User: Fold this.
Amino acid sequence: MDVYLPIANLSVNGLWIVLLGGVTGILSGLFGVGGGFLTTPLLIFYGFSKYLVPYERPKPQIIYFENWKADRSEAEIRADWVARAKETTRANAKRRAEFQRLADMMGVEYDASEAEKVTRETLGKEADAIEKKPEPPKRSTLAERAARGAAAAPATQP
Assistant:
């Protein structure tokens, strides 16, 4: 007698389910604990897991990594490291400036002083060019615009 389990999308022998329930009940009663810790491994051993989580073949990928000459000098390694550090610092400084603009627009306090200090230490004079904050656009109230509107409106000719 087979029993269909709709969640697992699987038919199993009903006697197996009854036997599993009985064994789990007896053992959990002896140990004084819930039966889940017994039922789960038994179901996995029985083969339910292959139906619950379908196997998907990994997609082929191209993985890029850099190769270096074996005879690179320590100075070349250090220069490469410094160049990468500067590149990362530049990207972080730009991202931090974007966060600062967002915080200004939202009216939230954003303190990046420690990060800016590290940026200046890493990039030197170049950091000043990256971290220049543009002036926020001048905003005016509706009343100010209306007051200017009468004076600034061009005279219409009939």
